[in-house]
Design goal:
The structure holds 2 protein chains of 2 kinds.
Chain A lengths: L1 E6 L1 E3 L5 E2 L6 E2 L5 E3 L1 H17 L2 E7 L5 H10 L3 E5 L9 H19 L4 E5 L10 H9 L2 E13 L4 E8 L2 E8 L2 E5 L11 H9 L3 E3 L43 H15 L1 H15 L1
Parallel strand pairs in A: 1-6, 1-8, 6-7, 7-13, 8-12, 9-12
Antiparallel strand pairs in A: 2-5, 3-4, 9-10, 10-11
Chain B lengths: L1 H4 L4 E4 L3 H12 L4 E4 L14 E3 H5 L5 H4 L4 E11 L4 E7 L10 E3 L2 H15 L2 E3 L4 E6 L5 E6 L6 E2 L3 E3 L6 H5 L11 E10 L2 H8 L5 E9 L7 E7 L3 E9 H5 L5 H10 L4 H4 L3 E11 L10 E2 L2 E3 L15 H21 L9 H8 L2 H8 L3 H7 L1 H20 L6 H32 L1
Parallel strand pairs in B: 1-2, 1-11, 2-7, 4-13, 11-18
Antiparallel strand pairs in B: 3-6, 4-5, 4-6, 8-9, 9-10, 12-15, 12-16, 13-14, 14-15, 17-18
The chains are: A alpha/beta, B alpha/beta.
Protein name (chain B): Protein FixC
Keywords (chain B): FAD, Flavoprotein, Oxidoreductase
Family (chain B): Belongs to the ETF-QO/FixC family.
């Protein structure tokens, strides 16, 4: 079995700084990390590898420095890393990104075997769109399973996978045919620590690097800024909603304390009480 | 495959200036090198003021000026003795420092270390981050033959391990190669990065282009503890910090954060920082025990470099240059032995120490070997009484208030005699002169 995990290198949002003078995001010197959501996808792939003996390829589109993130993926235990990099990809929105990645995935299929599963994270922390995964799935005509919290069973012979998907109303158990694209939900697993042998191997590994023409992209207008209909009109820092926190003092039993808190909330936001009452009635009816 | 490849010509523990200097030099000479760093990336754990001294780096990477991320070259040094409301300064500024190859620069370590580490990798060393060396592996004779890490798996072997693990020296300590660092031999420094527009910095410090200023200060700012404050101009920010000996902090006079707040609020410092925005806060230990605190530096299969070897000249605020120099010389020693096919044991590796003796590193540390003890024994005098007396004297002297100069002179001399006595003054002068020579 072959699994491809799409990862993205993103600036570590915990360490990002806004330039005090120009108010733009200062990317220089800000450490980069693997998009945290992608780590859940990668770990899930590695677990399948442990269970089923799959080979795992990590794929990343980004600048040449994104090879650092790929190397990290190798340290965790991925078998192979592919960097898709080209200046023509600069400024790609989700449409252009999913196009380039699906071309790379096709090429990966040709070179290393068609993947049965393509994993992505739920979304990235810098774009927050959650569109690239589904975009790849529809371009490559893969079944898609989004917001997956658990892989219940994988039946390779039958070409079937069963998963749990967290939905607003509860957990859905879904089964579908392979090949499939899965976007993995956060906090569903915990990333392992690679062994010393894996770490050494990762440090030595060659990162496979492809550009647009390597993956068979001929029409460059589908790439980068030109291939991106999304336009960023304005970037601004949100104004802080600074409301003073209120201290609610209450004596007595837990119930009394809870009532005091609820009363205080209702007093401050009368609409909340009405909404909750309406909702409660609706459920009982 | 793994079996064979887990042996290297040398293992370097740590990716600070000394470790990078060592790993770079070894790899450049064609040895197979594994550098292990516990931080997320090389430099993630490193903190410094920070001043880069060109000479030490030039001897490793001569063309560094063309590539390394540098902030400003230093054209002016200000040495301040401070009391609570004033400072007495000695400033040296020279157009000569606008030379083609300036001798020191302010740098931001996060960016500089990233560059240095990239050079190490380029030279061919294998760099393993997020990996902590937990212990040194020894053979039956006690000889160090490799390292064990916090990652699962076999140990990694090498005929020599260069310990560039920084001030705490935990690996060396755990392996019984060195004692725990004494609180009297280590300073705790805190610093902040204050962002200011380029033009503001240049106007405020009278600078053009990439010129920079360094302020080193001592006095009542450390409340009678042994320590100094500093302020460095970067391209678009100012690094400001203060540090004191840990055993002094332990006496509870003030916390590092309190000292830094007071230092920033001092009437001589506050205007320089006005309108700035704090963007970073960092703290680090600095080994300041000097020559007498240097631990055993070599043994069978191991060498200590950089902060781990207490290589800091506290008097001149030099450390990273000593780190790079010791790292380079350790590597050169290893390369020479490797070429001759000699064993790396306690006897042959002594060559490292002999080579160090011939450099400024050991010469300077030896010269100042008496200073840490002298300062510790007289800290309230040197960091309280004298700065106060100097400031009072200056104020008496420069204030025009109808008092005649002869009377002022007498008052100044009396103030010194009253608080230190003639014997005390002469004694202090003699002790300083003796420690300095």
């Amino acid at each position: 079995m072959h699994i491809v995990v799409c990862i993205k290198q993103v600036p570590d949002s915990a360490q990002i700084r806004v330039h005090p003078v120009t108010n733009t995001i200062m990317r220089q010197g800000v450490p980069t990390i693997i998009n945290p959501y992608d780590l859940f996808a990668l770990e899930e792939a590695l677990r399948l590898k442990d269970r089923l003996g799959a080979s795992v390829t990590a794929l990343c589109m980004g600048p040449p420095t994104a090879s650092e993130s790929l190397r990290k993926a190798l340290t965790f235990g991925a078998d192979r890393a592919v960097l898709l990099t080209d200046r023509y990809f600069a400024g790609s929105d989700t449409l252009a990104t999913s196009y380039a990645l699906s071309m790379a995935l096709t090429k990966i299929g040709e070179e290393f075997g068609t993947p049965e599963i393509v994993f992505t994270g739920k979304q990235t922390i810098d774009g927050d769109t959650a569109q690239v995964g589904p975009g790849i799935a529809s371009r490559l005509k893969l079944n898609q399973l989004t917001y997956i919290s658990k892989i219940v069973a994988t039946d390779l012979e039958a070409g079937r996978i069963t998963v749990e998907r967290r939905a607003e109303t509860g957990t859905q158990v879904l089964a579908t045919k392979l090949p499939v694209l899965i976007t993995m939900l956060e906090a569903t697993n915990e990333m392992r620590r690679g062994t010393i042998a894996q770490a050494l191997e990762a440090a030595r590994a060659e990162i496979i690097t492809w550009n647009a023409s390597d993956v068979g992209i001929e029409d460059l207008t589908k790439c980068g800024l030109r291939g991106s209909p999304t336009i960023v009109k304005k970037v601004f820092a949100p104004t802080a909603r600074s409301e003073a926190a209120a201290m609610i003092e209450a004596e007595g039993t837990m119930d009394a304390k809870a009532r005091a808190v609820v009363d205080a909330i209702f007093a401050r936001a009368p609409g909340v009480e009405d909404d909750l009452t309406a909702q409660a009635l609706h459920h009982y009816v | 495959m793994a079996e064979m490849e887990d042996t290297f010509d040398a293992i370097v523990v740590g990716a600070g200036p000394s470790g990078n200097a060592a790993a770079y030099t070894l790899a450049k000479e064609g040895l197979s090198v594994l550098q292990i760093e516990r931080g997320e990336y090389a430099g993630s754990k490193n903190v410094q003021g920070a001043i880069l001294y060109s000479d030490a780096l030039e001897k490793i990477i001569p063309e560094f000026r063309e590539e390394a991320p540098l902030e400003r070259h230093v054209i002016e040094q200000r040495m301040w003795s401070m009391d609570d409301t004033s400072h007495t300064g000695m400033h040296y500024r020279s157009g000569d420092f606008n030379e083609e190859k300036p001798n020191r620069y302010t740098i931001l370590r996060a960016q500089f270390d990233k560059w240095f580490s990239a050079k190490v990798k380029e030279a061919g060393a294998l760099v393993l981050c997020e990996t902590t060396v937990t212990e040194l592996v020894k053979d039956l004779t006690g000889r160090v033959i490799g390292v064990r890490t916090d990652r699962q798996g076999n140990p990694i072997f090498a005929p020599v391990v260069i310990l560039a693990e920084g001030v705490n020296g935990l690996v060396g300590q755990r392996s019984g190669l060195r004692p725990e660092i004494a609180p009297e031999s280590v300073a705790l420094a805190v610093k902040e990065m204050h962002f200011l527009p380029r033009e503001t910095i240049e106007a405020r410090f009278n600078l053009k282009g990439n010129e920079g200023v360094v302020i080193e200060a001592m006095g009542t700012i450390t409340r009678g503890m042994t320590g100094t404050g500093f302020l460095y101009t970067n391209e678009e920010s100012i690094s400001v910090g203060i540090g004191c000996i840990v055993s002094d902090f332990a006496e509870g006079e003030a916390t590092p954060a309190e000292l830094l707040e007071a230092f920033k609020a001092h009437p001589s410092i506050a205007p320089l920082l006005e309108g700035s925005e704090v963007k970073e806060y960092a703290a680090h230990l600095i080994p300041e025990g000097g020559y007498k605190a240097i631990p055993q530096l070599t043994g069978d299969g191991w060498i200590v470099v950089g902060d781990a070897g207490q290589f800091v000249n506290a008097v001149h605020r030099e450390g990273s240059n000593l780190a790079m120099t010791t790292g380079r010389i350790a590597a050169e020693t290893v390369v020479a032995l490797h070429r001759k096919g000699e064993a790396m044991d306690g006897y042959t590796l002594k060559e490292y120490e002999r080579r160090l003796e011939a450099t400024f590193v050991m010469k300077d540390l030896k010269k100042y070997k008496g200073i840490p003890g002298l300062l510790d024994a007289n800290k309230t005098t040197f960091f309280g009484t004298y700065p106060r007396l100097f400031s009072q004297a200056m104020q008496t002297w420069f204030r025009v208030d109808g008092v005649d100069k002869k009377t002022k002179e007498k008052a100044i001399l009396k103030s010194f005699r009253d608080s230190r006595s003639l014997r005390g003054l002469l004694g202090d002068a003699w002790r300083v002169a003796r420690a300095w020579r």
